[in-house]
């Protein structure tokens, strides 16, 4: 067990190194350097050259890479020239917002998808099942930004049920219950959009899993022993179908991160995705580089978590020695 | 008894429906799939023909008098946008552009994916190992972000470079699918027979294996097409897709990033959103019907 996890973690190290090299190369392709923003007509070109020399921008690329990556590991990504702040503290605030949104969305996602998947499978062929299949098809086909805009337009502007941007209204004081509820209130609309879009995989998987397990031997055995059908569904089948779903959680996180670029931009939610788009608009390359590296790292982490959960749930896929 | 057996045999020998016939039967059985196909072909035909008749210069001319003209006024059936340009005309041109780009990306990634997947699955061993490592790494990349970064930093940015950037990241899925199918196909008797007879590797790959997995490939390409429409319009919506002089459906929807337009000038972004939605639903539904037709266990008809 531990051997498997250790092996999987070790496997991640070369992936991380290649990822960081790729992003470093991307960063080098970006025009300008941290001092471009300081140049005014009065700036002495020699002074800029001195600054560049001091910052090590004239060193060979592997030296520069080493400086950059050792800094990045310690959380030092340099400064953002647009926000006049260190990149890490800038991302820190936003990361927390994105974390809350992702957490809220994942909980909603499973609250919606698990009952739909289980009942659609249990009552296969009924109207409920057909409706669920249709719903999961539509939520699979509809692009994130279209659903986001439609929800924002109808529920945010036309019906005025939800706030249309931000994380919390300024009038509330941090630390109070009102503040907390207002935060949750701001999460609802983007959270629901996110959750609805992510349900497809879970519903389809659960549904086919439940349908398959109806004919499994363990279900027949339980039935012939006189266990009521209701209990077989709620205990036996439910547990067996749910375990693999747990393994999806890593990939769900990865998917949410990609979608956060759209969702946060549309709902004016100040998280990492919105920061990414803003920084691109301002050509704030140190922030862009740091964010791509962070998202890449989180995606790797997501697949690591999925693999580990999977190996705990299903002993067959553990890596053999 | 003998008669019955003979009857059974002759029934079995009635040539099984193949290719297009199976597909047609599936579509005839599933009316929604047929409707989707008609809608899809209709939209493609109408936009491509209509777009030819629109004068682009005239369309994009800025006329402040017509700023945000409401639908049905000043001769604008669907209203006008911020620059006073006809939304309907932009919708048609945008749809044509979005569809063309999506088709181009689908074809390029299809060719790349088939070539790489075939090579990995057929040759196996070290070739397969290397390709699989590369693909595993690709899979974990934050693809969307890297495409956006490339779009921002590339010096000569135009439609061709956009298509190439997208294609460079989107061939993985097809390649993986083809590889896994070729792996299982590669051990079949007909492949071994061809090898024994001295048929060249390329002939076996392209004349032997490829036709046998073509139905699967068609399904994959259809679903990729839908995905590419989604990704291109999404990127254009954010402002990192097609260059400004080539309007896309996403560009029209992008007008809604301005909250005032979103709330008050719905006619600018709503029709384009709906068209994207209809396209995505139709292509995906056709893709699913094709998938059922390709798998004899799932067929309805």
UniProtKB/TrEMBL annotation, chain A:
Q: Which domain of life is it from?
A: Bacteria
The main location class comes to membrane
Gene encoding the protein? gsiC
Enumerate the InterPro entries for this protein. BPD_transp_1_N, MetI-like, MetI-like_sf
Q: Where in the cell is it found?
A: Cell membrane
Q: Where is the ABC transmembrane type-1 domain?
A: 95-306
Q: Which GO terms describe its cellular component?
A: plasma membrane
Taxonomic lineage from the root: Bacteria, Bacillati, Bacillota, Bacilli, Bacillales
Write out the entry's keywords from A to Z: Cell membrane, Membrane, Transmembrane, Transmembrane helix, Transport
Write out the GO biological process terms.
transmembrane transport
> Transmembrane region positions?
9-27, 99-121, 133-157, 184-206, 242-267, 287-313
Topology term for the membrane:
Multi-pass membrane protein
Q: Which CDD domains match?
A: TM_PBP2
**Record's PANTHER family?**
DIPEPTIDE TRANSPORT SYSTEM PERMEASE PROTEIN DPPB-RELATED (PTHR43163)
Q: Which protein family is it in?
A: Belongs to the binding-protein-dependent transport system permease family.
Q: Which species? A: Kurthia zopfii
| Name under which the protein is recorded | Glutathione transport system permease protein gsiC
UniProtKB/TrEMBL annotation, chain B:
> Which GO BP annotation is one of this protein's?
transmembrane transport
Q: Does the keyword Membrane apply?
A: yes
Q: Which residues cross the membrane?
A: 32-54, 101-123, 135-154, 160-178, 199-219, 266-287
Query: Which domain of life does this protein belong to?
Result: Bacteria
Q: Where in the cell is it found?
A: Cell membrane
Which keywords, in A-to-Z order, does the entry hold?
Cell membrane, Membrane, Transmembrane, Transmembrane helix, Transport
Q: Which SUPFAM superfamilies match?
A: MetI-like (SSF161098)
Q: Which InterPro entries match?
A: BP-dependent_transpt_permease, MetI-like, MetI-like_sf, OppC_N
> What sequence ranges are listed for the domain ABC transmembrane type-1?
95-287
Main location per the UniProt record: membrane
Q: Could you say which protein family the record assigns here?
A: Belongs to the binding-protein-dependent transport system permease family.
Q: What is this protein called?
A: Dipeptide transport system permease protein dppC
């Amino acid at each position: 067990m531990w051997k498997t996890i250790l092996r999987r973690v070790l496997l991640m190290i070369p992936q991380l190194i290649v990822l960081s090299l790729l992003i470093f190369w991307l960063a080098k392709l970006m025009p300008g350097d941290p001092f471009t923003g300081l140049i005014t007509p009065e700036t002495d070109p020699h002074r800029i050259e001195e600054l560049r020399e001091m910052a090590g921008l004239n060193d060979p690329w592997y030296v520069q890479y080493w400086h950059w990556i050792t800094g990045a590991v310690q959380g030092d990504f340099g400064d953002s020239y647009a926000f006049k702040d260190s990149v890490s503290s800038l991302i820190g605030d936003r990361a927390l917002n994105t974390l809350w949104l992702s957490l809220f969305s994942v909980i909603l996602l499973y609250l919606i998808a698990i009952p739909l998947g289980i009942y659609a499978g249990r009552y296969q062929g009924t109207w409920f099942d057909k409706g669920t299949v249709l719903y999961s098809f539509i939520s699979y086909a509809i692009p994130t930004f279209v659903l986001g805009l439609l929800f924002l337009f109808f529920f945010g502007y036309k019906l005025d049920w939800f706030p249309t941007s931000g994380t919390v209204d300024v009038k509330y004081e941090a630390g109070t219950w009102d503040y907390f509820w207002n935060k949750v209130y701001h999460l609802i609309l983007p959270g629901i959009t996110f959750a609805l879009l992510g349900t497809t995989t879970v519903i389809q998987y659960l549904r086919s899993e439940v349908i398959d397990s109806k004919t499994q031997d363990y279900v027949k055995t339980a039935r012939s022993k006189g266990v009521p059908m209701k209990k077989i569904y709620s205990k036996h089948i439910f547990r067996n179908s749910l375990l693999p779903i747990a393994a999806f959680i890593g990939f769900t996180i990865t998917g949410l991160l990609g979608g956060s670029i759209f969702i946060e931009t549309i709902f004016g939610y100040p998280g990492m995705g919105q920061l990414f788009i803003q920084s691109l608009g301002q050509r704030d390359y140190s922030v862009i580089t740091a964010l791509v590296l962070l998202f890449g790292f989180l995606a790797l982490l997501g697949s690591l978590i999925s693999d580990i959960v999977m190996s705990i749930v299903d002993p067959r896929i553990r890596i053999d020695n | 008894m003998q008669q019955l057996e003979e009857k059974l045999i002759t029934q079995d020998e009635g040539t099984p429906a193949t290719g297009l016939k199976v597909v047609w039967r599936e579509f005839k059985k599933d009316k929604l799939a047929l409707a989707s196909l008609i809608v899809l072909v209709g939209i493609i035909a109408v936009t491509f023909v209509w777009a030819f008749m629109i004068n682009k210069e005239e369309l994009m001319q800025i006329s402040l008098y017509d700023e945000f003209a409401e639908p049905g006024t000043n001769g604008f059936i669907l209203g006008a946008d911020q620059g006073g340009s006809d939304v309907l005309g932009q919708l048609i041109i945008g749809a044509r552009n979005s569809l063309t780009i999506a088709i181009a990306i689908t074809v390029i990634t299809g060719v790349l994916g088939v070539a790489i997947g075939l090579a990995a699955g057929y040759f196996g061993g070290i070739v397969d190992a290397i390709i699989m490592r590369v693909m595993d790494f690709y899979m974990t990349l934050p693809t969307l972000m890297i495409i956006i970064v490339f779009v921002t930093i590339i010096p000569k940015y135009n439609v061709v470079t956009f298509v190439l950037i997208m294609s460079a990241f989107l061939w993985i899925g097809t390649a993986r699918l083809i590889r896994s199918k070729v792996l299982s196909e590669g051990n079949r008797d007909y492949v071994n027979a061809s090898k024994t007879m001295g048929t060249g590797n390329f002939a076996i790959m392209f004349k032997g294996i490829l036709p046998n997995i073509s139905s699967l490939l068609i399904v994959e390409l259809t679903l990729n097409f839908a995905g590419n429409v989604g990704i291109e319009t999404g990127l254009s919506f954010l402002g990192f897709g097609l260059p400004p002089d080539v309007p896309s459906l996403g560009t029209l929807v992008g007008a809604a990033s301005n909250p005032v337009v979103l709330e008050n000038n719905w006619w600018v972004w709503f029709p384009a959103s709906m068209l994207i939605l209809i396209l995505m639903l139709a292509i995906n539904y056709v893709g699913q019907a094709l998938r059922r037709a390709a798998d004899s266990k799932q067929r309805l008809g």
